[in-house]
Design brief:
Shape: globular
Helix content: 10-25%
Strand content: 25-35%
Low-confidence stretches: 199-204, 236-245, 397-410
Number of helices: 12
Number of strands: 21
């Protein structure tokens, strides 16, 4: 038995919609997971996978136990040597602090072709939990040496820094979080003799029986338990030092040039036929009224717009090409392996604008008269401001792809030439967005979905952008995106 036990109580908030599917499709194509009481939650297994991904494979196997593969099971059976190991990190489910059914909403998605026409059979809907919802979760670590608690501290640090994303489509803006508060408790059940043997000096002179009694009486689920204290740990900045990654990000502060049309559909008689997609208002967020919600542009819409524009700029980024699949990933199809996208797009929340309702009718191009049954009302959002964050990963080892298909250096590594090509094409797409050559959402042919870029921040450093010629900005932006030069 490992006699040092540390616990964390983490209170966190969703900063974007969360999609954790249950495998059921009673209400939508993918219903959210719920417990026996009907309360949505985040399974501990989902969180454990996220925690494990923070570390190198060696560290993860050491502290979380090796992955349960058929090969290891058979090896253990044949040779009589157990190659499996219990995890030292115990992960618990995350439950909402306060929950009401109105926090569960529905999102619709549809695949589009190059002409923004829906692909037949590619529409589906799914349930999400709205951003702003607060959860509580717990983590426990069992140790032989107090120095090992750095693993749990690194997980706590990742929560505080907003590096934890959960559920489906995290690379498209879903499941992002931020920790609000963290509490910790630690129990050292070793005897003084055991500490001396390990040459360890530990604060506390209580006898072993008293410490054992304190641990046994500890109620992890009681927020008022005297053993809980505000978490105090040595912060580890960035990604775990044992697993360096070439991860970069760019933040664009955008201003609408007109309206936006990312539609959500409704059959309510008192609602417009077509309305701009909204999400639940987060506390403190500006808006005309609470009922309207906050207009949003999903990360999936941004990903589609950038992918299409980058394909127009460079044919290597067209759908189906090797470079495009290396950066944007590919879906599993006809028995072929899928590949995770290296590029992530956040969900953008638009504020500071105004709702406008338009009633329209289709016009017959030959007679100039109205088309019967083609009258509809649309509600859209104009002249707001928003922020888009794009992240990408240049690291040359795709551990997930390796576990599925075996390591192929040429397939999963990013060469210097590919790195440069990506930076050149992404920089050009961003400048096209600012110039009005790229639009997002629907009705782009009539001027919807246009934005001006007001500020660019690359890897948390502001990029000089305003009042500069494109030919001056472009080469500097390319260098910044490659991550090879400091700004």
């Amino acid at each position: 038995m490992k006699k040092i036990k540390k616990y964390y109580r983490i209170i966190f908030q969703l900063t974007s919609p969360l999609s954790v599917g249950s495998g059921e499709n009673n209400l939508t194509d993918r219903d959210i997971i719920r417990d026996s009481r009907g309360v949505p939650y985040i399974p501990g297994t989902a969180l454990a996978g996220v925690y494990r991904s923070l570390f190198s494979k060696g560290t993860a196997d050491n502290y979380f136990g090796p992955e349960l593969t058929e090969e290891r099971i058979q090896d253990s059976l044949k040779n009589g040597i157990n190659k499996l190991k219990d995890s030292d990190i115990v992960t618990y489910d995350a439950y909402p602090e306060v929950y009401t059914e109105k926090l569960v909403t529905k999102r619709d998605m549809v695949a589009l072709d190059d002409y923004k026409t829906a692909v037949p059979g590619a529409k589906f809907d799914f349930q999400v939990l709205e951003p702003g919802l607060t959860f509580v979760t717990y983590i426990e670590q069992n140790m032989d040496d107090p120095k090992q608690q750095w693993v749990l501290d690194e997980i706590a640090s990742a929560w505080m820094e907003g590096r934890i994303s959960v559920g489906a489509k995290t690379g498209r803006g879903y499941g992002h979080t931020k920790a609000i508060k963290e509490y910790s408790a630690i129990f050292d059940l070793r005897t003084e003799k055991e500490k001396e043997t390990e040459q360890e000096s530990q604060v506390g002179q209580d006898d072993n029986m008293k410490k054992l009694a304190e641990w046994l009486s500890f109620d992890m689920y009681d927020s008022e338990d005297k053993n809980w204290s505000i978490a105090d740990y040595k912060k580890i900045s960035g990604i775990c030092a044992e697993n360096p990654q070439e991860k970069c990000s760019i933040t664009l502060e955008l201003r609408q040039q007109g309206g936006i049309s990312v539609r959500q559909y409704t059959t309510e008689v008192d609602e417009a036929d077509y309305k701009q997609l909204t999400a639940r208002r987060i506390a403190g967020e500006e808006g005309e009224n609470e009922k309207e919600g906050t207009p949003v542009i999903p990360g999936t819409s941004w990903a589609g717009a950038f992918r299409a524009q980058m394909g127009r700029l460079d044919s290597e980024f067209c759908k189906g090409r090797a470079t495009a699949e290396k950066f944007f990933g590919k879906a599993k199809n006809k028995g072929k392996d899928s590949r995770k996208s290296r590029i992530g797009f956040s969900e953008s929340r638009i504020t500071g604008g105004k709702w406008v309702v338009n009633t329209r009718n289709a016009i017959d191009r030959f007679t100039g008269g109205t088309v019967d049954g083609a009258l509809y009302t649309e509600k859209t959002y104009y002249n707001g401001r928003t922020v888009l964050e794009i992240t990408w990963d240049f690291s040359g080892y795709d551990e997930e792809a390796f576990s599925v298909s075996g390591y192929d250096e040429e397939a999963f590594s990013v060469s210097e030439n590919e790195r440069k090509k990506f930076a050149e094409t992404m920089a050009a797409a961003i400048l096209d967005l600012n110039s009005g050559y790229m639009a997002v959402g629907g009705l782009t042919a009539i001027g919807r979905g246009l934005f001006a870029v007001e500020k660019i921040t690359v890897n948390k450093k502001e990029f000089a952008f305003a009042d500069r010629a494109v030919e001056d900005i472009y080469p500097e932006l390319v260098k910044a995106i490659t991550g090879k030069e400091e700004l």
